[in-house]
Structures are given as structure tokens and as C-alpha cells.
Write a structure and sequence with these properties.
mainly beta, OB fold (Dihydrolipoamide Acetyltransferase, E2P), five-stranded antiparallel β-sheet
């Protein structure tokens, strides 16, 4: 179930773990996994401006998915 669409900048991305953080326009941080990068590349550079959707992730948390440049 989706909770909305956001815009932001990739704050960091760890290629080894496949995990990254996006900071949205409101200053909130969103965790994302490499499998949720929309173009299928599985990697993205810090500083990249992105659009993303928000959905329910792990227990009790929301996360970014469908991350696109």
C-alpha cells in the first residue's frame, strides 16, 4: 500500500549493502533498497535528485520505493 509521492536527494548509498537514504524536501529521511531503484540499475550516486513513493516497509516503518532519477 502506497502512502504518497516525494521528491528529494540521495543522501548516501552503500553499494556493498544495497541500502541508501533519501532526504526529502521537508527534511525527512527515507531508507531504500537497491531493488527499489526504478530503472533496475541497482546503484545510485549520492547527490542525485529523485522522485519516490512511500510504502510500509519493515516492522512499523515507512520506506522509499520506486526511486527514479
Amino acid at each position: 500500500m502506497g502512502f504518497g509521492i516525494g521528491r528529494g536527494v540521495v543522501e548516501s548509498f552503500d553499494d556493498d549493502r544495497g541500502l541508501g537514504w533519501i532526504v526529502d524536501d521537508g527534511g525527512r529521511r527515507w531508507l531504500f533498497h537497491c531493488t527499489t531503484i526504478a530503472d533496475g540499475t541497482r546503484t545510485i550516486d549520492a547527490g542525485t535528485t529523485v522522485r519516490f513513493e512511500v510504502r510500509s516497509g519493515g516492522p512499523g516503518r515507512l520506506e522509499a520505493f520506486s526511486v527514479s532519477r
